[in-house]
Amino acid sequence: MSAENVAVIKGIYDAFGSGDVAGVLGAMSPDIVWHEAENFPYADRNPYVGPQAVAEGVFGRCITEWDGFNVQMTDLIDGGDRVVALGRYGGAYKASGGAMNPQAAHVWTLRDGKAVAFQQYIDTLAVANAMRG
Fold first, then answer.
1. Which CATH number covers residue 69?
2. Res 1 pLDDT > 80
């Protein structure tokens, strides 16, 4: 099952990269519990519960507040019911013009082929610096 879990997570990143938000949300359990990293600007509503909360509170803000927002996860680590993704975020904050390229890690938990939990880890100082310009 773990290879299938890696494929699910790869599919999430592929969908996000192509702008297929519905595809990303469809890979989530209806009761997913999503945590942004402490001190990340969108951690203000932690935890996000359910795909709609993630879409509105995280994805919606990333898309509207950043130019060229992207997530490039280069490594997926198989941990059975957990998959760890390693990579970087990119984009420029619209209000300041500041660019970011911080390292990031995501820990996904899956059950029955769906993502049931997400935890983000990221260089929040790099993000804050970009937001300040």
1. 3.10.450.50
2. no
